Amino acid sequence: RVKMNDEEILVCAVQLGENFCLYFAGLECDAFSKEKILHRVLRNVNSQLLVVRPDLNIAAFEDVTDQEMKCGNGMHFSIHYYKTTTPSAGMPVAFSVQVEDKSYYMCCEKECGKTIVQFKEGEVPKDIPGESNVIFFKKTFTSCSSRAFKFEYSLEQGMFLAFEEEGGLRKLILKKLSSKDEVDETMKIT
C-alpha cells in the first residue's frame, strides 16, 4: 500500500528493471467480477434449510420435508463467485434465490442504526466496480471442518451471517464475532 494525497492505493510489484529498480502497478481496490455460479441449499448446524419468504420479508432456517425441497421455492440458492483485486479477505460471493417466477438477491441495509439482512427483487450484478452491500467473504468455518463455512459481510469486518431464535424461527441475521478465535455455531453454514 502506498499513501498518496491522503489516499491509500493498493500496489503490486510487477517488474524488476535496470539497476534493480522495482516498478509497481496500482490496483483498483475492491473491484469484483463474476466468475462462476454454484447452485446449493444452505443448511445450519441443525441441518435446517434456509428458506426465503419475500412476501413476509423473512429468511429463516426451517425443517423442510423432501416434498417441499423438491418444489424448492425459496430454498435453492445461486452462489455467485467473484474475482477480486483483494483476495486476502476471502472468496467474494453473492447470493440469489428464485421464489416462484421472481429472482431475489441478498443484501444488507442499515435500519435504525443496525445492519440487517434483506432479500430484494432483482439480479446480482455481473461486475461491481467498488464496495457493495451484496458481497460476502466465504471463509472456512474452522480448519478441521472443510465442508462448513462462514460468510463475512464485506462492508463490516467481523460481521457474519448467522441465525438467531426469534418467535419460534431461526432468522437469518448479521452477527458480530467477538474474537477471531471464537467458534460460534450459529454462523456455521454447509
From TrEMBL:
Q: Which domain of life is it from?
A: Eukaryota
Q: What is its main location?
A: cytoplasm
| Tagged with keyword Cytoplasm | yes
- Alphabetical keyword list: Cytokine, Cytoplasm, Secreted
Positions the record marks as coiled coil are none
Q: Where in the cell does this protein reside?
A: Cytoplasm; Secreted
Q: Which PANTHER family match?
A: INTERLEUKIN-1 FAMILY MEMBER, INTERLEUKIN-18
Quote the protein name from its UniProt record: Interleukin-18
Q: What is the organism lineage in this UniProt record?
A: Eukaryota, Metazoa, Chordata, Craniata, Vertebrata
